[in-house]
Design goal:
The complex is a heterodimer of chains A (818) and B (455). Chain A contains 21 helices and 27 strands. In chain A, 28% of the residues lie in helices and 19% in strands. In chain A, strand 18 and strand 19 form a beta hairpin. In chain A, 44% of the residues are buried. Chain B has 455 residues and is of the alpha/beta class. Helices cover 32% and strands 11% of the residues of chain B. In chain B, strands 1, 5, 6, 7, 8, 9, 10 and 11 form an eight-stranded mixed β-sheet that branches. Chain B has a three-stranded antiparallel β-sheet with strand order 2-4-3. Chain B is globular. Classes of the chains: A alpha+beta (818), B alpha/beta (455).
């Protein structure tokens, strides 16, 4: 209202006559904690001061003024100007007019060059804030001063384990300045859920083309986490994008292809797992205008879909990753057959040991050597065995009579040193041990404890079937026992039981040369990507949604890359199907507005009328764009951020939804300006019922918080919020809050001030006077509810009592509503 | 530190609350006065096999020639390896051997006492859903076709047995609530009794818990119970029940469980050995709670039955799960041989659907229709139901849509029989417990004929 006093922006000035209040300061727009209700048409500017402590100015690396303002300001540090926006004059007169800016997003102003103004101990920041006109509708100043530490080197981008990604969901949820994006990324992750554990398990079981283990278990978990992280990044970047892109990216996500079995969905052996869920869970919603026939047909469309590694420079980004994926295997090799299926074998039925020890009668390996005379053995071809119809030589008398059969075959290798990779490829039922020249080279896992050499009556400890596919064993460790010239491969084959219905042995010996340019499963730099294998694709004609306006006819004979269209076309068409619009819009309304609308209540017309109207508007928005299903457009209708008139803003939707565990955890840390590093927050979230990223079931967690509420979960929640509020983890805990500085910076001293502050902050004035009275009673009494006034006389005691009180607040039923 | 009832009493102050079972109904605020007033001592344990159990390999219809290595190349189990059930038709999966102790086949032959294991095939419902989520919902809420109905049949039964007076009549041995026990009054979920307690010194916990208001929704309570028992705001009533009701149940349930644990370490009796792993741990806790608390209906999950790939015949994923179930049944059978406990208990399995009769291309099976229910208990008449020469014609393996086993009995008839014979429900009561029971039975009388598996 008048020119400021001299030295007002220096420490020497005594501001005791000034008013005290927290920032933001100003009026209008609802973004201020200290409201200057007399400013409009009263005065043009407001002058602010705040002291702060810097123990060691040399420790400050980068000094950042983060200012959200309306309209102009000049900021002084210890009396010297350090930042200015929208305002002229030196110094600006108290009634100077600023040019216009609206608050809403803070601006970071780097003032590191002025950090020499800082002194050890007490420092002063002072700001004069000016309006554009005396009758302006608003003014705001929300200043922060930050020390920015620069990390050595670039930020770590590679997720090392699933725990870090789970932590990231919490940390982004707590700290992201783009809260809607963060919430939606978690929403899409949960909608298009995949189970990390299954992906890691599959990776762990992979071989390279030379039959070596592709990777360790630890590496399998790391790579599975990285696959999940890439998809999470996509969900983050496309949180407000087109649903068609989200659906297609999810369908071609390597984690999804493994999780819901598309990688084993092949022509003649269709697997319906993904075909069912894309309709039921990802696009249409359960039983929403599709049939079992549609599931079977769409499963055929997805045959040939798989995943492989590519070199990072060849990893396409979306949508090329989905539309023009690689169609050749990652590894190219030339196989030379040393021993193939077919004739040339000698075999002996296991009615006696083939070469028993002369004294003890125990089994020996003499029969596996080149010198052994097998002239009396029978001649036969492989496969050999009985049952299942997969044998060229049928042992029709084996069942019920003998358990074992012994095989030998000689083969010629001119030059063993010229071999690239000596591989033994074998399909078998049930167990075997293989030898070259008397040396055991490999055996089936189920014979691990059967002895060496196993006797003719030894039993495998598990069944194994030919239909499980051939296994590859690398024999490179045995190259030095091979002769230049004649060699012998010998195999003893064991049945699981004397009356088993089948036995089989189909062995091959291969020399495999791996060609340049191959990317193996175990390649540490390779990137997992969508891969379409036309050879596995079912090229028959297919009809989807037959007899509806959305019928899709897929012609027969789409060869090569064209076969990919069989699934891409339906996916792209799904955003045009009313079922998808209904299902996704309903889920978004469930997420953000109300639990009172669901696909069944929508179909039954029993949802509340305002929600049905909101859904109709959301579906209209869905259909209003090209392509249909733009999430930003739909959410603008649901959240209505400008007019603030949608059902989202209605009293019925206010504090009506129950918080899910992650919402409870993150909101509790946010509300106390807590410090969280991620730490064990994922484990706590799991204990409360929400194991993010590792859920087995493909339906994701319910958007209805009440379905995740239970006594077990509530008890975990209460124990967590108490532990957090009371800082029981100590200074190193992964989650804590700085109680005293929180209270000091807000000038909170008395029980009444503290109760009022938190009641407003957490419950927005929704508590009754009686309820606030009970809060005050809690904070002003001892453990027996006898009066014990809260005082700062003993800081430790004061802090403990406030912390117990805040733990109590966060345990209240009212805090469980969002 | 956790607190228990003794510390509670020592600390004084809330003596009235600690007498007996302190869970109350927010509607009527009655308190039950301790055990002894129970209308019945009957107990029920339901085990939900999530994912859809392959009934065809669980109870093998050996007499159907369609069960062979052509329809099930890797899943076929040879006759010599399966367990004979003595009716010349059905066999059990070899891994179910531990259950044979209950089945007691000699009993069927008239030599020893009657067996207590009922093996029921071809259980399903008209309009079978092949969605895991919907079909699980129907099995638990009792109303096929109403996936959004959130109230469970076991919950409804508990209400009939006095849930409003005693909140610890039922419990789920899980972190989240099972739909079968879900309803407006929160039933406790207890994943691990040992950690089911509040943190902090007793005096602090007592202050934190405070006391209930003098009347429901009143304003004169204190601490946590004051708020959870106080005014509920304006959220939809289901959400109010979820939050406020759960909190009210929690404080009482913690006390009941701590009282039970205070009786000392739990040692299974009669040579019972629970299978290792979380399923066995849960069943062990079930037995502990059955012996030490007034609980009457308990629910347990066992997951992993969605065997689309690599299911395994005798050994493997499916066999391991069956072994867990069988060892669990046997452990309960032995452990509950105390007083009338076994006589008063029924254990029953549920699963949302069976699996395709033909093996798929991934050495697994896909979602199908009717499935197998196993039931045991002192009043259960051991035997094979719906899997005998008179109930199963050759080829019935593919009697539904050329893919599945056709049902013979509606799952609601199984539970209808349990609720009426075991718990004594009248037909009007049963129609409240399983909504629309009579109407559904009138439409499909064949499906609703009781199997008479209970004496």
């Amino acid at each position: 209202t008048a020119p400021p006093p001299a030295n007002w922006n220096k420490q020497v000035y005594d501001p005791s006559s000034w008013a005290v209040g927290p920032t933001g300061i100003g009026y209008g727009d609802g973004d201020d904690l200290t409201i200057l209700s007399d400013m409009q048409n009263g005065y043009m500017s407001v002058f602010l001061r705040r002291t702060f402590q810097v123990p060691d100015p040399a420790a400050i690396e980068g000094l950042i003024a983060r200012v959200d303002y309306d309209d102009g300001f000049v900021m002084y540090l210890n009396g010297t100007e350090v930042a200015r926006r929208n305002l002229s004059g030196n110094p600006p007169a108290y009634n100077a007019a600023a040019s216009a800016r609206e608050a809403g997003s803070a601006e970071d102003i780097n003032i590191t060059s002025r950090k020499n103004l800082l002194v050890a101990g007490s420092n002063l920041i002072a700001i004069q804030v000016h309006n554009t006109t005396i009758d302006s509708s608003d003014l705001t100043m929300i200043p922060e001063l930050l020390n920015r530490e620069l990390l050595p080197g670039p930020p770590i981008k590679v997720i090392r384990g699933i725990g870090e990604l789970q932590q990231l969901l919490h940390v982004r949820g707590i700290y992201s300045r783009k809260q809607l994006q963060s919430v939606l990324a978690e929403f899409w992750e949960n909608h298009f859920t995949t189970d990390f554990d299954k992906v890691a398990e599959i990776f762990d079981g992979l071989q390279n083309s030379d039959a070596s283990d592709a990777m360790s278990s630890a590496e399998a978990m790391r790579q599975a986490a990285q696959v999940k992280e890439r998809m999470h990044q996509f969900f983050t970047e496309n949180a407000l994008g087109n649903f068609g892109d989200l659906l297609l990216a999810s369908a071609t996500d390597p984690a999804m292809i493994l999780y819901l079995d598309n990688f084993i969905n092949k022509v003649g052996n269709a697997n319906e797992n993904y075909g069912r869920e894309i309709l039921e869970l990802f696009a249409f919603g359960v039983d929403n205008r599709y049939t079992q026939k549609d599931i079977e047909e769409i499963a055929k469309c997805f045959t040939g879909w798989s995943t492989r590694k590519v070199a990072p420079e060849n990893a396409p980004s979306f949508p090329a990753s989905a539309e023009t994926p690689p169609q050749e295997a990652g590894v190219l090799f030339d196989d030379t057959t040393l021993v193939g299926l077919g004739s040339g074998w000698k075999y002996r039925k296991g009615t006696a040991e083939p070469s028993p020890d002369g004294v003890s009668g125990d089994p020996t390996t003499a029969w596996t050597t080149l010198d052994f005379n097998a002239a009396a053995w029978l001649n036969g071809s492989t496969g050999i065995g009985y049952g299942d119809g997969d044998d060229a030589t049928v042992l029709s008398d084996m069942r019920g009579n003998y358990l074992t059969v012994y095989l030998r075959r000689t083969f010629n290798i001119p030059d063993p040193s010229a071999l690239s990779n000596l591989l033994f490829e074998v399909a078998y039922d049930d167990g075997f041990v293989a030898y070259i020249h008397g040396v055991e080279v490999t055996r089936s896992e189920n014979m691990a404890e059967a002895g060496s050499p196993p006797s003719r009556t030894a039993l495998p400890d598990e069944l194994h079937e030919v239909s499980e596919g051939p296994q590859l064993f690398n024999l490179n460790g045995f190259l030095d026992i091979l002769n230049a010239g004649a060699n012998v491969l010998a195999i003893q084959v064991h049945n699981f039981s004397i009356d088993s219905s089948d036995l089989s042995m189909l062995p091959r010996l291969i020399d495999r040369e791996i060609l340049p340019g191959s990317v193996e499963n175990g390649d540490p730099t390779g990137v997992w990507t969508f891969y379409f294998n036309p050879a596995d694709h079912d090229r028959s004609a297919k009809v989807l949604f037959q007899g509806t306006p959305y019928q899709i006819n897929i012609p027969t004979g789409r060869t090569g890359a064209l076969g990919l269209r069989d699934a891409l076309d339906p996916i792209r068409a799904m955003v045009n199907h009313p079922s998808t619009a209904e299902f996704i819009c309903i889920k978004l309304i469930e997420k953000f507005v109300s639990d009172e609308l669901s696909l069944p209540t929508f179909k039954a017309n029993t949802a509340p009328a305002p929600l049905r109207a909101l859904l109709a508007d959301a579906i209209a928005a869905w259909n209003s764009t090209t392509p249909k299903g733009n999430i930003r457009t739909v959410l603008e209708v649901i959240l209505d951020p400008v007019n603030q008139e949608s059902e989202f803003w209605s009293p019925a939707s206010y504090r009506a939804k129950v918080k899910t565990p992650i919402e409870l955890i993150n909101s509790s840390i946010r509300v106390l300006d807590g410090l969280a590093t991620g730490g064990n927050l994922p484990q706590l979230n799991e204990a409360m019922g929400m194991n993010l990223l590792t859920r087995d079931e493909p339906d994701g967690f319910s958007e209805l918080g009440r379905e995740l509420m239970s006594t077990d979960s509530l008890l975990e929640r209460i124990r967590f919020v108490q532990s957090f509020a009371e800082n029981t983890g100590g200074a190193g805990a992964p989650y804590r809050w700085n109680t005293l500085s929180y209270l000091d910076s807000r000038g909170l001293d008395t029980a009444e001030e503290i109760v009022d502050h938190f009641a407003d902050l957490m419950f927005h004035g929704s508590l009754t006077p009686a309820e606030k009275g009970r809060l005050l009673e809690f904070l002003s009494t001892d453990n027996n509810y006898n009066a014990r006034p809260l005082t700062r006389a003993n800081t430790t005691d004061f802090q403990r009592r406030v912390q117990e009180f805040v733990g109590f607040l966060l345990s209240l039923p009212q805090w469980s509503f969002q | 530190m956790s607190w228990n009832r003794r510390e509670f009493l020592k600390a004084g102050g809330l003596t009235a609350l600690s007498l007996g079972l302190n869970i109350f109904s927010p509607q009527i605020f009655q308190r039950r006065i301790l055990a002894g007033t129970a209308a019945s001592n009957k107990r029920l344990i339901f085990i939900f096999q999530r994912g859809g159990n392959d009934g065809v390999n669980t109870v093998i219809p050996r007499g159907d020639p369609q069960y062979n290595t052509t329809t099930r190349p890797t899943l076929f189990i040879d006759e010599s390896e399966a367990l004979d059930l003595g009716n010349g038709f059905a066999q059990l999966h070899p891994m179910l051997q531990p259950m044979m102790e209950i089945y007691n086949q000699t009993g069927l032959n008239g030599v020893a006492g009657p067996g207590n294991l009922a093996v029921c095939h071809r259980i399903g419902y008209s309009g079978q859903s092949q969605s895991h989520f919907d079909s699980q919902q129907y099995w638990e809420n009792g109303v096929p076709g109403e996936p959004s109905r959130e109230v469970g049949i076991f919950y409804n039964q508990l209400v009939q047995m006095g849930l409003e007076q005693n909140g610890f009549l039922g419990a789920s041995m899980s972190s989240s609530q099972l739909v079968g026990l879900n309803g407006p009054l929160a039933v406790p979920t207890i994943s691990n009794p040992a950690t089911f307690s509040f943190s902090g010194a007793p005096a602090k916990v007592l202050k934190f818990l405070g006391q209930l208001p003098s009347a429901p929704l009143g304003d004169d309570g204190r601490g946590l119970q004051g708020f959870f028992g106080g005014p509920r705001g304006s959220a939809p009533v289901q959400n109010q029940n979820s939050v406020f009701g759960t909190g009210l149940t929690l404080t009482g349930a913690v006390q009941t469980v701590q009282d039970a644990l205070a009786q000392g370490p739990y040692t299974p009796t009669n040579g019972a050995v629970y299978p290792t792993g979380s399923f066995g741990d849960k069943l062990r806790n079930v037995a502990m709670l059955l012996k030490r608390t007034p609980v009457q209906i308990l629910g347990v999950n066992i997951g992993g039955w969605d065997t689309h790939t690599g299911q395994g015949a005798i050994y493997g994923a499916h066999g391991n799960l069956l072994q867990d179930v069988a060892e669990g049944f046997r452990a309960l059978y032995r452990d509950l041989q105390e007083g009338d406990l076994w006589q008063d208990t029924v254990i029953v399995t549920m699963t949302e659907f069976g699996r395709t009769s033909v093996e798929n291309g991934s050495r697994g099976t896909d979602h199908a229709y009717a499935c197998v229910v196993l039931a045991a208990g002192g009043s259960v008449k051991g035997g094979v139901y719906n899997c005998s020469p008179s109930t199963w014609a050759p080829g019935d393996l593919f009697s539904q849509s050329q893919r599945y086993v056709r049902r013979r009995t509606d799952y609601r008839a199984i539970f209808g029989e349990i609720f009426t014979k075991h718990f004594g429900d009248t037909m009007p009561i049963l129609n409240q417990v399983i909504p629309g029971y009579s109407a559904a039975a009138t439409q499909n009388p064949q499906d609703f004929t009781f199997l008479n598996l209970l004496a």
